[in-house]
Every structure is written in C-alpha cells, then in structure tokens.
Amino acid sequence: MSVNVAKLSSPNPDRLLPDPGLISALEDRFILTQVTGLTLVFPATWVAEIVRIDRSQILDLPFYDRLLVGIVHHNGLVMPLIAAARLLSAPKSALPERAIVVRLNETQERLGNVGIIVDRAIGSTTGRELPPDIFSTSGSGSMVMMQSHLVPGNLWQPQSWSLDN
C-alpha cells in the first residue's frame, strides 16, 4: 500500500505529511463491529488497531466497575479492556478464548489505548452508507455509534466493597 505524501512548507520542508485528501477520506470512514445483535460503529480516526487477545492474558480487576473486564499487556503498554456488550446493556455473552479487541488511539484522550471487546469485526464503510440519524443520536435501532460519553468517568476508580455476614 502506498501513501500519498505532501511536502510541508514550514518550518521543516523535508518533513513529509499525509496527503490532505487521504486524511479527509479517513475521517469519512467507519469501522463496523458486531456486539450480540447490535452493530457498533467506530469512527476510523479513533481506531489504532484491531487485535485478538487470548483470554488467559487478561488480568482481572475485581474491585472495579463491571464494564472493566481487566487489563492486558500489549506492545509494551497496559491496555484496559471494556466489554462492549456491557457498555451497550446488551445480553451478556461469555468472553471467548480469543477476544477481538478494538484498541482506541490517543486522540480519544481518556479512552486512549483502551480496548473495546467486540464479538467480531465486520468491515468498514463511509459515512454516506450509514443511517443519517446515527450522527445525531447515539444509535438507530440495531446500529450504535461509539461515543466517549458511553464510558462512565468513574470507570478507572476502584469500587468499595463490604462483607455481608
């Protein structure tokens, strides 16, 4: 695959940047995934990579919100894993032996390097091929747009616990 590049006029003319047309095309792309019976849509600009993670590699975090499945060591970083099914209040499904994880990139600030566990990756599409109302609301029936506000802000804080006698 070749990438079109354009010379930067300032401050360093030797530095190469992606062609603005390529960036615009990426901004109009969306990654489609399946979570139970729903299609979860990610803006392509949010996605760093889609990887498979063995369940045996996941370290459980029992005193955190139930959305947080655990953490995994990936490419030299600790990646928190969120179950998309729980995020969408979809029927609970068991974690497979090899989970498919959409790792979000650093452009998503508090969700940068977070992995979202989905059932499967379907493909990609353009914004023109998506239902128009998916951009004004969080979803349209069986299709939901991934939005950062779906993840609670207190997700990263340990939850209190008590022993009942």
Brief summary:
Residues 27-165 form the CheW-like domain. The protein is mainly β and 165 residues long. It has 2 helices and 13 strands.
Detail the topology: elements first, then pairings.
Elements: E1 5-7, E2 16-18, H1 20-27, E3 29-35, E4 38-43, E5 47-54, E6 59-60, E7 68-74, E8 77-83, H2 84-87, E9 98-104, E10 115-118, E11 120-126, E12 139-140, E13 143-145
Parallel strand pairs: 4-13, 8-10
Antiparallel strand pairs: 1-2, 3-4, 3-11, 5-9, 6-7, 7-8, 9-10, 12-13
Keywords: Kinase, Transferase
GO molecular function, one term: kinase activity
Domain CheW-like: 27-165
Please describe the structure with a list of short key phrases separated by commas or semicolons.
six-stranded mixed β-sheet; kinase; 165 residues; mainly beta; OB fold (Dihydrolipoamide Acetyltransferase, E2P); CheW-like_dom_sf; kinase activity; Chemotaxis protein histidine kinase-like protein
Global shape: globular
Oligomer class: single chain
First and last CA, distance: 63 Å
Radius of gyration in whole Å, from Cα? 18 Å
Structure classification? mainly beta
Instruction: Give the H and E element order.
Output: EEHEEEEEEHEEEEE
Tally of alpha and pi helices: 2
Question: What topology, given as strand order, has the largest sheet?
Answer: 5-9-10-8-7-6
CATH domain fold name of the domain at 29-141? OB fold (Dihydrolipoamide Acetyltransferase, E2P)
Protein name: Chemotaxis protein histidine kinase-like protein
Keywords: Kinase, Transferase
GO molecular function, one term: kinase activity
Organism: Chamaesiphon minutus (strain ATCC 27169 / PCC 6605)
